[in-house]
Amino acid sequence: NTKTNKKMFLNIIGDPEQYLTSVTRSPDSKSVFVGVLNRDQNEMQLNQYDAFTGNLSKTIFEEKSEKYVEPQHQLTFFPNSNTDFIWQSQRTGFNHLFHYNLETGLVSQLTKGNYAVTDLLGFNEKKKEVYYVSTQETPLERHLYKINWLTFQSKKLDSQPGMHSGILSKDGTHLYDVYSNSFTPRAINVISTTTDKSKNILTAENPLKNYQRPEIKDITLKADDGTPLYGKIILPTDFDANKKYPVIVYLYNGPHAQLITNSFPASGNLWYEFMAQRGYIVFTMDGRGSSNRGLKFEQAVFRHLGEVEMSDQLKGVEYLKSLPYVNAEKLGIHGWSFGGFMTTSFMLKHPDVFKVGVAGGPVIDWNMYEIMYTERYMDSPQKNPEGYKKANLLDKVQNLKGHLLMIHGAQDNVVVWQHSMKFLKAAVDNGVQMDYFVYPGHEHNVLGKDRVHLMQKVTDYFDEYLKK
Fold first, then answer.
1. Distance CA 387, CA 367 (A)
2. Which residues of 221-238 are buried (b: 16+ CB within 10 A; e: fewer)?
3. CA–CA distance from 390 to each of 112, 396, 416 (Å)?
4. Which of 122, 64, 66 has the alpha carbon at shortest distance from 89?
């Protein structure tokens, strides 16, 4: 209470190591809602608490999973209602919108299908409509939709391909639509939700029109189980099909990330294009474990991080080696964070594939990473000792054959410095030579003017050991 400075604690019972998620205050401020998630993250109760006493009013519903439940959103209450709200859940395999009432429970599942709702934008109370963003057209794009919460009639509101995001006016009558695609740097439309007509208010010029741009090809490969995997290949700007070129594979391939989308620039990253100007082929692909493809795709890596992801990325390597203009003896790999873990894993577990690797901010031992994230995908070290042992890179350093540059921010508070320092110690203990660089004062990502220094260092390393 800001007037009395008196604190009120919610009387939440249970394991002190449980997680309190999706904390939401009701519009009338009489209740507080908490998603109480167990340490194993496979059972969640959405509880309602009295804001004046802190006592439990009731449990509204429970969600359970054999693998994990991942509440990521607060409750979104309908306009002028203290009883009806939207809950976002992946319980059907994809993130969807569920209409709940505090008295009667589940009213309806508003959105359904093999696609994910990626953002909830708001309401038009008069028309009984909910506005949202989803991957309904393709996982490579985002589009804007509305659905009537009584009749369930839905409609797509934009017409251009690409990655759309939206801001809905407070009364729900106008939708601000910002999008880009491979050939549109940025466009802004205002859509009238009354007429569904769209008016363009900005179309940006291409800031790269005077640059030497590479040819970019969209690639679809298949995982071992037939799942389609989306990627891109960026060819050198002076491409000659009769020559053979070195290749850099850039990857992340971890949870909550997607590299391949229909957005600007088509390459996905201007550093790729810079390397294409320097005579490299660049390849990048989202394997299983990455986001916006549904739970089956994401949970394929459960309890064994790094294994399925490497299997998928090896499909990319297989594809690259099938191309007559790829120099199979000169393959390099680069990634940061989870991508740093993947890069290091490849250099040690498949040491004959890549000649050069650059691993930034890499997870080396999942025992030392943030608990909620790690145990969601790996279970605890006590329950999954084999999974942790297989993913641990400290006892595999002796396998290194190629050139490995490891980079870390000295103040990294995400993947703590201990990861790469322990790896260095293991390299020394095993008589293994490698390269290492630290960015003092930087956290998990090297930002600001020093980013230029970082990318130059990465570029120089590939020029030194892959190009020659």
1. 11
2. bebeeeeebbbbbbbbbe
3. 38, 10, 20
4. 64
Identify the helix (H) or strand (E) that includes residue 340. Answer: helix 338-349
State yes or no: is 403 an active-site residue: no
Q: Is the dihedral of CA 326, 288, 110, 20 positive or negative?
A: negative
Based on the residue annotation, tell me whether 444 is a catalytic residue of this protein. Answer: yes
E strands of 392-444, at which residues? 403-409, 435-439
Cα gap 245→320, rounded to integer Å: 11
Residue in this structure with the two tokens 């577990």, named with its chain if needed:
349
Nearest to 261 by CA among 142, 433, 415, 85: 142
SS3 (DSSP) at 416? coil
pTM of model > 0.85: yes
pLDDT tens, residue by residue, 430-443: 999 999 999 999 99
Identify the three-state secondary structure at position 299.
helix
The residue written with tokens 């390099």 in the block is: 332
Residues counted in the chain:
468
Active site residue 337: yes
Q: Which of 22, 89, 337, 420 is catalytic?
A: 337
Q: What is the pLDDT of residue 468?
A: 81
Distances from the Cα of 224 to the Cαs of 233, 289, 300, 301, 312, in angstroms?
Answer: 21, 14, 12, 13, 8
List 412, 419, 420, 442, catalytic entry: 412
- Which of 310, 407, 405 is CA-nearest to residue 353? 310
CA-CA distance, 263 to 265, in Å (whole number)?
Answer: 6
Both tokens of 459, joined, read 């570029």
Task: Tell me the pLDDT tens digit for each residue of 161-220.
Answer: 999 999 999 999 999 999 999 999 999 999 999 999 999 999 999 999 999 999 999 999
The Cα–Cα gap between 200 and 426 comes to: 58
Q: Which two tokens stand for residue 56?
A: 């439990």
Contact 35, 74 (CB under 8 A): no
